[in-house]
Each structure stands twice: as structure tokens, then as C-alpha cells.
Amino acid sequence: LQKYSSASERERNLRSPICCIMGHVDTGKTKLLDFIRGTNVQECEAGGITQQIGATYFPIENIQQRTKELKADAKLNVPGLLVIDTPGHESFSNLRSRGSGLCDIAILVVDIMHGLERQTIESLDLLKMRNTEFVVALNKVDRLYGWKTFRNTPIVKAMKQQSKDVQNEFNIRLTQIITEFKNQGLNTELYYKNKDMGETFNIVPTSAISGEGIPDLLLLLVQWTQKTMFEKLTSSNEIQCTVLEVKVAEGHGTTIDVVLVNGILHEGDQIVVCGMQGAIVTTIRALLTPHPMKELRVKGTYLHHKEIKAAQGIKITAQGLEHAIAGTSLYVVGPNDELEDMKESVMEDMRSVMSRIDKS
Ligand code: GDP
């Protein structure tokens, strides 16, 4: 780690936390992200199935703006939040595992009308195995019979204004779901009643249609990660970067979509990537990102950057990327690095990717 002279200097150097969205199909994972972004990826997808991993960057100014009704003076130190969206469909379990492996914290989406479902349990098993923190978004609260809509409102305020019947139904369903988590060996509680954060996982009731609870979810994600993952989020210079997709982009040739987890990438950096016919050594021609709050997967105009700090979803253009392999690490060649050693390390990823493909 770099040496910082003061705590505030360290705070300024925090990287953005990475968050992924997991849960059973149809619980509203895509809709939640769409609501937060103000976009409509859900309706664009064939049958609503997310087929690739996506990445969206939310600048902290945007999060501050959206959470000020909940807590106007919240001290947010990270530069933003990078949200990774993994495919829900059964046949993409290798992509789900790849996406969730990158995140610092996960949102586990549960449909309040259905409780824990098969893929919720599968997600929980992945999270437990990796020891990943998570927050439960108890979604679709607007479907409680008689729910009155209060758009974008903090959940406690919205709940107070509901009828006794709605509040009762909510409490019954919540209690049932807390029991279901208990049966999986996990303690959970509404985040605003949770006195044992760290041991007891937080539940945030949300609606991805009308936005109740969304300010709560955003604020909790940022505050929790910056408080409990300070060391992990203190940027070091070490590059940690994973290739998500290899694809042809109009006007750019073959490009790679990557998630930069740690460190800084520059235009002109010499990189080493795992390739089907051996290590690929090339130079970054352009570093492209979608506009903030836009999806890396969705076609649009890109912003060009001279350098980019983690965490970000980035499209890299360079020569010779045709046979790059998704799911592997990207390395940057530094002045003291042995290129041959790096070529060897980069190819070690190939075996683990191949074994995952065999299993899925
Ligand atoms: P995913 O498979 O988890 O990504 O689920 P989607 O985002 O595709 O949502 C599945 C369905 O549930 C869609 O018809 C959504 O419009 C609907 N949906 C998602 N979130 C909510 C919500 O909060 N309230 C209501 N009423 N419907 C929702």
C-alpha cells in the first residue's frame, strides 16, 4: 500500500466499491438497475433475460443528490459506485460466478411476494463461499395489496403513510422471509432496526417501479463499504483488471470490455492478455467508457479517457485482441517487469476458465 500522510489524504484516494446484483430470475434485478439509472435495459433484452455481464458507474454526486432526503449531511468519501449486472438465466451460471467474484458487496434481490427461491439459495451459496458482504433488496413492495405510491421516497417515510392492512401484510411477509434466511443459517433484519450490523445482514424494502427504498439502498451500499472496507478500497498502484467480454465494436475492431478493480490504466499502456493461441501483448489504443449511469453493454457514444482510475467498466481498443479470452486477467507491463514472466502468468488463468466452462 502507498503511504499516506493523513487520514483525509487516504479518504481522497479511496477507489469506488464494486457491487453486483444477484438473485432469482424475475425478482427485478434489471428493473432495479434500470430505475437507478433511469434507463430501460429490461425491455430491450430478449425475453427480459440479461445475456451478458454489464457494468454501470454511478458518480458519487448522483448518489448524494438521490439520498439527500434520507440524510442530507451524509459524508460520502468514495468517488462513486460501480454496479455489475450478471445474467439471471440458468445457462449462465459461469458468468454469474465470474461477475460475483469481482464485487466488494452484493445486492441480493428477493421478491417480497415469493420469498427465497432456488436461485436465491444458489446466490447465497456463492456469497457464503466467497465470504462476500451483501444487502437484501426486498423488492416489489408496491405489490402489497393497497400500497400507496410515494416515488423515490425513503422506505420508513413511505411505510408510515401506508394503511394498517398494508403494514400488517408487509410484517407478515417480512417475518416469513427472515425465517427462510434463518433456515439458511443467516440472520437478517430491516436495516433501520439492525443493531448488530456485521453479524446480521441488512434488508432494504424496495420498489423498482416507483422507487420507494432506493435512496436507502444506495446510501447503505456506499456507507457500509466505505466504513467496513476502508483498507480494501484504499487504492494501491497494483493493477487488478478482468476481461468480461471480447467483441467487435463498430469502428473500433475487436475490443475487450474489462472491469478495472484496482489501480489506474493509461492510454498507451503496454498490456498482456490471455489469448486462445498464447499470450497477447499489445498497446492500449483507446480507453472508452459509456457516459456515467449508462450501461457498458448498450450501444451508445463513448467517452475517451487518457487515464482511468478504479473501479470502472471500460472498453479497451487495441490491436490483436481477436483471440482474447473472457474471464481472464489483464496485466500492464511496468518498467521493471519481465515480459516473459507476465506472459506466463497471464496464461495460467486459461486453465481455471476452461475448467469453469467444462463444469457449466
Ligand atoms: P430479473 O429477471 O431479476 O432481471 O427481473 P426483471 O427486472 O426483468 O423483472 C421481472 C418482472 O418483474 C418485470 O415484469 C418487471 O417489470 C417486474 N418488476 C420488477 N421489479 C418490480 C417492482 O418493484 N414492482 C413491481 N410491481 N414489478 C416489478
Number of strands: 17
Net shape: elongated
Largest sheet: 7 strands, mixed
In terms of structural class, how would the helical and strand content be classed? alpha/beta
Helix content: 25-40%
Identify every distinct bound molecule in the structure, by name, code or SMILES: guanosine-5'-diphosphate
In round numbers, the mean pLDDT is 87
Order of helices and strands: HEHHEHEHEHEHHEEHHEEEEEEEEEEH
Gyration radius, to the nearest Å? 21 Å
Regions with little confidence, pLDDT below 50 for 5+ residues: 44-52
- The spatial strand order of the largest sheet comes to 2-3-1-4-5-7-6
How much of the sequence is in beta strands?
25-35%
Distance between the amino and carboxyl termini: 37 Å
Summed up, the helix count is 11
Protein name: Eukaryotic translation initiation factor 5B
Subcellular location: Cytoplasm
Domain Tr-type G: 14-230
Family: Belongs to the TRAFAC class translation factor GTPase superfamily. Classic translation factor GTPase family. IF-2 subfamily.
